[in-house]
Amino acid sequence: MTDVRTAPRWWQPLGRALLRAVPAALWTAVDSGRPPWRPRRRRWDVALLAVTFFYGVVVIGTASGTDEAVRLTSGLYLLCAAPVAVGLVVAVRRPLDGWRLSLLGLVLTAYVLTPPPAPAPVLEGWQWLLWCPVLLATAWASSRPVAAGVAVVSLALLVVLGVTSPWPVELARSLPISAVGVLAPLVVGASLGARRDARRELEAEQARTARAQAERGALAERARIAREMHDVVAHHLSLIAVRCETAPYRLAPLDPRAGTELAEVGGTARSALTELQRLLGVLRAEDQGPERAPQPGAADLGALFDGARAAGVDLEVDVGVDVADLALPDTLGLSVFRIVQQALSNAAQHSPGAPVRVSVTRAGGVLRVEVVNGPGTAPGSPGAGTGVTGMRERAELHGGRLDAGPARDGGYRVLAEVPLEVARP
């Protein structure tokens, strides 16, 4: 049980936080990075500095033309007001340093200028016009502890100036209003800074999520490719084993040594098939059930196109080569089929109602598969971002490449190129 006498009071952690925040606001170099309001282009950045400088000149010039011109246009006026105006310009790039310069200028104007003839507020109107933007920028660009230190120091400065001012100050009315004038831009700036930090964290989290989804998609697609390759390889190994085991009966009479050799080859094929099934068995552990249908190939593209048209896809097909004449290996034919299938699925999902053109051609020793869709006529639904990753995995599996990206007309283009020489068995 915690002793009440030793329990920390609420002001103790607050005091420790302020002890860390005030030094950070006064002399720690915490200005880092690019302030959120600065434009990326240099010319707009220079224009922002010019506008800020012009604003400071206008404020000081207007103040010197008021009824108190005799006091404000004294020889020390520009010298005392310069740090406040320069602090505003510096705050465009280094907000905390600009705020420090503004503090120096406020102190100088309070103790050096000629006192006004009548009671005046702690800070005059022209000072607020220069200082409030600096407070807003400082709280916007700084962290929460630094913004708290800026608030404490600014409020303390108001109290000190009000109490020690060389001219009469209406403390009862001026200090509460001045405190609101300090806290209002600080609160607005801190809110904008919190919004900026939240947006950055959200963007970083979205980037991490996208990378995780891409990695999971790549792993899932590799697992699917491995399962499909297992089916293809297992089919051929089974044929080898069956032919070797039935050769003594189909080719009798057979030399005993040849029969022994074929039996050993058949046994090796059976062993390889068993090891392959054991190695890839974990990939099938998460399947809903065994895949009993034969794997599709390039020869099944026609049925795929018919199914897409039946689903309402405006499909144009340009097959400039007879796929059957190419004698594609089963794995390559399966990859070509899956790439076209995934590209058509992406077009239907992300660009509903868009016309789609499929082109399968041969350029030298390279098989070229291109799927292009136009802009959709209805809003599409977002995907997990794994389709392109899977298509790229399949193309690279055969030593090829895949390019996918937006088309010039606002649609999407998928281009896969696979060398036939590498793909041949």
TrEMBL record:
Keyword check for Membrane: yes
Keyword RNA-binding tagged: no
Spans through the membrane: 44-63, 69-91, 98-114, 150-169, 175-194
Keywords: ATP-binding, Kinase, Membrane, Nucleotide-binding, Phosphoprotein, Transferase, Transmembrane, Transmembrane helix, Two-component regulatory system
InterPro entries: HATPase_C_sf, HATPase_dom, Sensor_HK_TwoCompSys, Sig_transdc_His_kin_sub3_dim/P
Histidine kinase/HSP90-like ATPase domain boundaries: 331-422
Annotated GO CC locations: membrane
Catalysis: reaction(s): ATP + protein L-histidine = ADP + protein N-phospho-L-histidine
Lineage top rank: taxon: Bacteria
Signal peptide: none
GO molecular function annotations of the record: ATP binding; phosphorelay sensor kinase activity; protein dimerization activity
Enzyme class: transferase
Protein's name according to its UniProt entry: histidine kinase
Species this chain originates from: Geodermatophilus obscurus
Organism classification: Bacteria, Bacillati, Actinomycetota, Actinomycetes, Geodermatophilales
